[in-house]
C-alpha cells in the first residue's frame, strides 16, 4: 500500500470538498458538478465523519519531520487543522438548532446563490434543471435534522423560526420564480423556462411549503425565546460553542478571552469616535455622534441606483490606487451587483462572490439596495473597500493564480484569514487616501466598532447567556449602524455561533504582524512585499500566517514577486 504524502492528500481533500459542496464547485467553474446538490442528511454526515477520521489517521502517518518543503509543511498543518475542526463541528451540530433567514440559512443560500449561476451553454442549462429538481431532497433532509434536534430537546430560536416562515411566505407569494433568474444559453429559452416552472411548481415549491408548515405549526411552538437566544441554552451548546470559537479563530483563545478583547477594542474606538465626531459634527459626545450618523436623513440614500453608482465609483478609485501598495497582478475583474431581492430583506449589507476559474464570470461585490432610504451613505466606502478592492476581490482573485499551491489552498476560505484581511483593508484604505472625508472615515470607525462589538455580543449570547435584546442594545450604544442592520446582525450571530469573531481577531493579528515587521526591518520594510507575503500563500490559519511572516522577516523582508 502506497504511503500517504502531503500533496496527494491535499488533492484528495479538495476533491472531497467539491463533492460535498457541488454548488460551490459550480461557482468555481468545475462543471462536472453542475447537476449535483449537497446531501445534508444525517446518514450522509455520518459517512463524512467516517471519511474525516480515516483521512486524519492517514495524515498523521506523515511525520512532520519528514516534510521538508516549507509550503508542504503549511499544507499538512492546514489539512490537519481543517479536518479536526470539521469533526468537532459535526459533533456539535450547532447548525441543527440555528435555522434562520440570514445568510447562514441553507434555504437562503439556495435562494441567493442558484439564480446567480452562469449558464453559458446547453450542457450547463440542462444541468441546472437537473439540479433544480433535486432541491426538494436538500430541503427535506435539512428539515428532518431540525425535527430530530427538536425531538432531542435541542430547540430552534423563536426569532429564527419566524424569519424562516416569513422568508418562505415571501418566496411562495412572489410573481417571478427566483430560481429561474439565470439566463440559459444554447437552448430554447421559452421551453427551458416552461420546464423549470413545472419543476418549481410540482417539486420545489411543495418542499418549501413543507418547511413553512413545519416552522409555523411545529418548530416555532417549542422554540427558544429571546432570553435564551444563545446556544449555551441548548444541551451540549456551551461545549460546542468553545469548539466553534477555536474553529473560526484558528486560535486556542477561550470565549472569555475573546469577550475581554472585544470590550477593550470597543472602549478604544469610542475615543476615536469622539475625536472624529468633533471634526465632523462639532461634538465629542459619542451618543450624540452615533445618533446623528444613524438618524440624519441627509446622510441616507434616496435610490438603489445611487448605492450601486457609489459602489462602482469606490471600486474604481481603489483600483487606481493599488500600484503604490501592491504589486501589479494580472487577475480577474470585479463587478458590482445588487443582492437578489428574494433574500435582501434579511441579508447583510454586502457579500462577495469569487470569479470562476475559467474566466467566464468576474468576481462580484453584491451590495444590499433593499429599502435604500434605510441605508447610510457614509458606510458604503469602507464596505466597498472590504468586499472588492483591496479586500476580498484582490485576495480571492490573486489566490486563484497561485499555481504552485494545492487547489484547496488556492480556492479555500479560512474565515479568520479572509475576513481579517477584509477588515484590515478598511484601515489600509485610509492609509491609501481613499476615503472622501471625515464623514466616510467615521463610517470606517463605525465598521470597526461593529466588528469589535461582535467579539462582545457573539460571546455574550453564546457563552454568557445574554438575551437578544441585550445584544441589540449593546450594538446600538457602540456603533452607528441603523436599528434594522443591528437586528439583522444580531440574528445572524444567533444563527451562526462563532463566525462573527473571525473578523476582528484576524485583523488584529495582521496588524500585529505588520507592526512587528516594520519594527524589525526598519527602512528595509516594503509594504508591497509584506502584502504579497500575506496573500501569496493562499488562505491560511493564523499560526501559519505568523510562521510565514516570521520567516520572511528573518530573511530580511525580500520581495518574492516574480511579475
Automatic annotation (TrEMBL):
InterPro entries: DUF885. It comes from the Bacteria. Pfam families: DUF885 (PF05960). PANTHER family: DUF885 DOMAIN-CONTAINING PROTEIN (PTHR33361:SF2), GLR0591 PROTEIN (PTHR33361). This is DUF885 domain-containing protein.
